[in-house]
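notes to self, project folder thing:

trying the whole complex as one job this time. last attempt i did each chain seperately and stitching them together was a nightmare. three parts in total, labels are on each line so i dont mix them up again. if this works i'll redo the older ones the same way
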Amino acid sequence: MTTPAPPLENLPNVADTLQITRAQRILRGLWTAPLSAKLGLLIILVYVFVALFAPWIAPFGESEIVGKKYLPWGEEYFLGTDNLGRDMLTRLVYGARNTVGIALVTTVYAFVLGGTLGIIAAVLGGWIDQLLSRMVDVLMAIPALIFAMLLLSIFGTSVLSLILIIGLLDATRIFRITRAVSLNVVVMDFVEAARLRGEKLAWITLREILPSISAPLAAEFGIRFCFVFLTISALSFLGLGIQPPTADWGSMVRDTADLITFEDYTPLIPAAAIALLTIGVNFVVDWFLHQTSGLKDEL
Amino acid sequence: MNNIATMLLQRISLGLLTLFIVSLIIFLGVSMLPGDAAQAILGQAATPDTVAALRKQLGLDLPAHLRYINWLGGILQGDFGTSIGNGREISEVIGIRFANTIFLAAFAACISIPLSLLLGILAALYRNSIYDRTVNVVTLSSISTPEFFVAYILILFVSVKAGWFPSLSNIQGETGFLERLNKTFLPAVTLTLVSVAYMMRMTRAAIINLLSQSYIEMATLKGIRNPRIIIRHALPNAWAPIVNVIVLNLAYLIVGVVVVEVVFVYPGLGQLLVDAVQRRDMPVVQACCLIFAVTYVTLNLIADILSILTNPRLLHPK
Amino acid sequence: MSSDTPTSNEILLEVSGLKIEGYSEGRWHQIVKGVDFTLRRGEILGLIGESGAGKSTIGVAAMGYAKPGCRISAGSVRFDGIELTTASEEQKRQLRGARIAYVAQSAAASFNPAHKLIDQFSETVVQHGIGSREQAYADAKALYAKIRMPEPDLIGFRYPHQVSGGQLQRAMTAMALSCRPDLIIFDEPTTALDVTTQIEVLATIKDIVRQFNTAAIYITHDLAVVAQMADRIKVLRYGESVEESETRQMLDDPQQDYTKSLWAVRSFRKTEKPPLPETVPLLHIENVTASYARSLDPVLIDIDFEIHRRETVAIVGESGSGKSTTARVITGLLSPSQGRVVFDGVELPADYRNRSRAQLQQVQMIYQMADTAINPHQRIRDIIGRPLSFYLNMEGEAKKRRLRELMEMIELDPDQYLDRYPEELSGGQKQRICIARAIAAEPKLIICDEVTSALDQLVAEGILRLLDRLQQELDLAYMFITHDLATVKAIADRVVVMLQGRIVEQGAKEEIFSPPHHEYTELLLSSVPEMDPDWMQRVIEERRSKSGMESAGN
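result (full assembly):
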């Protein structure tokens, strides 16, 4: 040693003045979030509340026939009745539970399936990755809605087959994105360092890779949920999704569609309920992406 | 050029392979069903003898791989089999239905492609401006909206209340071109509204990525005028992303027609498919799915090929 | 030369009180805080500073240009009597390319991939109405010939990706000259190049700027480079001017402490000490040949060298020489097709997955980019603590104590840093964390892969000193992969020179650095810029006379 190293780089840096925890940062981010994100969050909270407390909020039973068909909006039946004489408001409230619930279960299932396989493909590489990727390529070569209709016509239109089929098809998209973001992490030197240290694959996956991909995957969850939600609604609207008598927004539009020619807004209400939730989720996801990527010009 | 030829050949053979596997899936999926077409056509009351006779006539008694070859061979010659629902030749209806669907998708594309390219380029050029932020919120909302919501809003306001355009698109073979345009206007606008947002966002991202390249800054520092920078420096490198956006959008439109066709009772392939699925008319389902899948795969293949053909690095190999 | 021209004293560019702001995290920050300088016709000013000094920002501001996300907030930039801060866009456009030209750091990214080199050359000429396309073509060919480009009549008709990096950078210099500007801004034009390519580009730039009596601003972080190029040097730090004077005076007699410390960086030499007694070498790479796939050509051919205890072996070579691949073979990430790796007399399994935990523990690695070498989602405590529990089964109090010791060894305050995330640390601090993680495993050999090349010189020197001290204390052996010969001189005991996957020469540092050299070593050594302003002229003349003699002999 000649002279001791000048501790130039030990000078206090910007980080010292900005030393705050992640939780604080997220809270601060929420406070300064744009109006659209706050609105989105509020929408989601309202939907969750309605879904959880549906039986207490709804004035009637889910598939109870309460009056004549197509009654107009009024005091007794706030949004009128549908083609069988069921209360629209009640069906709308229960729809939050059914439609959103089924979409959520499907998305979770798709994530567990696609996400796990995506990480496995990225970490293991080699022929496993090749096999999984080619299978996904083929599944994705058929447009999702068309494929879903094919499979539904084969397996029948029950809620279970709906969840399994839509989940499987959506899992292919999740597989792709999980594999892509994991691959970005797998090539990092810190993963190589862990491999060379002799760490087991499980440790590398759970401790090194998962924390790095959780933010983009969280955003992806929002996006995929919207997609699944819209697909299920579209199928229900076509009469191929959630089946009666379960209250569901897509089939509610279908059931009351004829009213539109009489300048009646009723069929627009469940459709708006679908749109509003998706918009809310997208607003939050959009803000979240900006927050985590630090990029101002992302999609 | 050899390099490019190999790449193109690779893509095309990969596309063909994909189509083969897709046809296999569509065929095998359906043959997994309990019961068969003969039983379905004749109904439960039919005697085993007549069912067996029809099975033989339809070739259903053959092993699966032979049936597949017969099926595929028939399709390649334009024979899609017989509908279980009405016993008619599928090829009689499917051609017109497909043409109608293409007409609607093309109509929508004619509006949505120029519109979204324009909006996307403007948003990229005036990025982070009020315009950009407004467009961001509006497009996010319209991406989030189900097609039938947009469709019914249009029907309510433009058709029922204002009476400007018909809400039913019941076109037929003899419908004239102008009337056809008039009747398909609302479905086309619906498709435009739901697809513009997606395409416009892709355009914006592609242009922003392009404008951040060093050679664009270099052109500015060489004292080149802005219009020339766009035309001479940005555009030659923008073809690949733009073509990609356009073709993917076409693919999206072709598939997106299903819901819109049902809402407007438009006699297209999508409507045919939905009816067939409800009636579990499997030969028709197979035929429609195959046509949709082939169109989709082909469009994606075209996007791939065009992006290879417009890449200067590949066009001028070392 | 420039002093002979009558206009030499005329002031071309005058920058005063220049302040530039950059936008980040929702507000404007000052990144250039009031800088002044003047430039006369035909004069070359060197702007030198470490990252964050604002030198590039100042460079393009001389064209009246602010990079995206930046704005010129105060001060004046007068070019030949025109005030650029208030000039209209059209006025500035007419100047850019025609009277002030720009040469960017990455020619590969700054040439448009869709157009031929010569078209990009002629575009400036035609667009500024200076000449026709045919005239520009002829001029381009003449210039290409003047800067000794191969096939000067044809090379312009190639696309950028068809030309090598060094040639591309020279073509960009030629393009900057297309309108015979009064001023050229060179923004780190050789930073991305290998050292043997760099000298050619530097010679081209210097030649051509002198020949056409063009004024230039030369921006770099490399002192030796700026010593060759500039008439005057201005030292910048954190967006402020530190000092400015004639090149020779600045080199011989810097006034400010910061400048002195920059100048002193290259004086560091490792502590010499007697070798440890040993019977077998710590590591022996025996005749290793390796390729990335069986069908591909080998990237390593017959590599054979030893590393001894408490010794630093530097592996030197340019990009593509196979030096990092050698490290991959040693760590077991790439299995050799021939040969073996023997550690402490025992052959290591070729694949790291077949090595025992104890074997893995013996060889640790430090990477070039500390940013990607440590997981941004783990606290420092967990990053350094993992090898302790993994290899040494250390937990609880013992682990806590050891963590504090390790932090003190790398000269970081344990109380302040142990519970932080990497993103809260500076680049040099992160590299120290990587060092701590490596020594936590208590290895015998550490592979250092370009560990200082992403760091500023002062910070890099701190890292080298730290590594040297740790070697003394812990009897570590280092394998030091680097392209930077200054680092080799500072830290190596022995040197292995690699070229295209082969070892061309190896031996003790003194041997390698004193003649006679192997031909390639000679080229490599003579291409490293020295702080002497006459160095480049001398080397170029020597090389030309030599090649002249050779061709005369043939």
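what i see at first glance: The CA atoms of residues 196 and 223 of chain A lie 36 Å apart.
need to look closer tmrw
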